[in-house]
Amino acid sequence: MSTQVLHTVEEMRKWRDEQRMSGAQVGLVATMGALHSGHLHLVQTAATECASVVVSIFVNPAQFAPHEDLQEYPRTLSSDIAQLQSLSLPDTSLVVFAPRVSDMYPRGISTNRTLQRGAFIEMLGLSEMLEGGTRPHFFRGVCTVVAKLFHATEPHCAYFGQKDVQQCCVIKAMVDDLLFPLHIKVVPTVRDKESGLALSSRNVYLTREEKERAPAFYRGLCRAKELFESGVVEGDKLLEVVREEAEKCGLDVEYVCLSSPDDLQSVDVVDGRGAILSGAWRMGSTRLIDNILLGFEF
User: Taking the model in full, what pTM does it have?
Assistant: First the structure.
């Protein structure tokens, strides 16, 4: 399958006008490239619901702090396109939108927030906890670039993976607050079939030994879900089993939290609304995240 690659907002909007004229439903899968099976699953899910699918590939400087891995983040556009072309999507028009930094940030962009100029979006009340606790810049950058992608591509639906659960909650709230005329679809996390480790572009940084230990966090999440399904709703008990499993394998856990799916605030008990059990840990210099849903689905 041939895949059209667009690099400018002007090209993207011309393509979008063509889809509008034909009446095609458009889906967006926003990525930073380094595609893996999880991304491809999002594309395939979008293709089952939309006649036209845009896969954006853009490493967004605004969501990196000066000390983070912006320069080292894998950039694999050629192989990403090859993977997309290998998909069997006979009834879908697939286009790659790979804009330049200058297109997405006409005033320029620095990873140093004090040097940034121009318009940025913050979701107050949802961005400060969990991932925002250690990466206070992160969701400001995510919301800004996702809003720009929404404006450039004008999708009917946008597809995001549950692995980045806080991101899903933040973007859904941004869409509601800013009256974007689109629907956010959250797709379950794709995992390694043998270990259960959530697929992530950063997994390429892991050594063989780290890949063997990293799935311990997910095993802890699964143990906690089993406890919940057996009737345990107390947060301290659910959190403890995750920590125990992680400690067995010497994981450097940054946080484990039980949160309300409504506002991401920490909760002590899983009530009728359900809860998100999530956390982050480090394997050497690589930071990983994962989560599991208790008592609800997106």
Answer: 0.96
Question: What's the pLDDT at 3?
Answer: 87
Residue-by-residue DSSP string for 70-115: TTTS---HHHHHHHHHHS--TT-EEEEE---HHHH-TT---SSGGG
Residue 228's pLDDT is what? 98
52 phi, psi to nearest 5 deg: -130, 135
Note every long-range contact of 88-92, with CB atoms under 8 Å and residues 24 or more positions apart, other chains counting. Answer: 88/1, 89/1, 89/43, 89/44, 89/47, 89/53, 90/1, 91/47, 91/51, 92/47, 92/50, 92/51, 92/52, 92/53
Task: Please state, in angstroms and rounded to a whole number, the distance separating the CA atoms of residues 146 and 164.
Answer: 14
Token duo for residue 55 = 């896969």
Cβ pair 279, 259 in contact under 8 A: no
Please give the sequence-ordered ranges of beta strands (E in DSSP) within the chain, or none if there are none. Answer: 4-6, 26-31, 52-57, 93-97, 157-161, 183-187, 252-259, 275-283, 286-294
Distance CA 78, CA 297 (A): 35
The residue to which tokens 């990196």 are assigned: 64
Q: Is pLDDT at 1 greater than 70 in this prediction?
A: no
Please write the tens of the pLDDT for every residue from 119-172: 999 999 999 999 999 999 999 999 999 999 999 999 999 999 999 999 999 999
* Whether 155 contacts 184, CB under 8 Å: no
Distant-in-sequence, close-in-space partners of 246: CB < 8 Å, separation ≥ 6:
216, 217, 220, 253, 256, 279, 281
| Percent of the chain's residues with pLDDT above 90 | 97
Contact in structure between 157 and 183 (CB atoms under 8 Å): yes
Q: Name the residues annotated as catalytic.
A: 39
- In the chain, the amino acid numbered 16 is R
The one-letter code for the residue type at 150 is: F
- Strands 157-161 and 26-31 come out as parallel
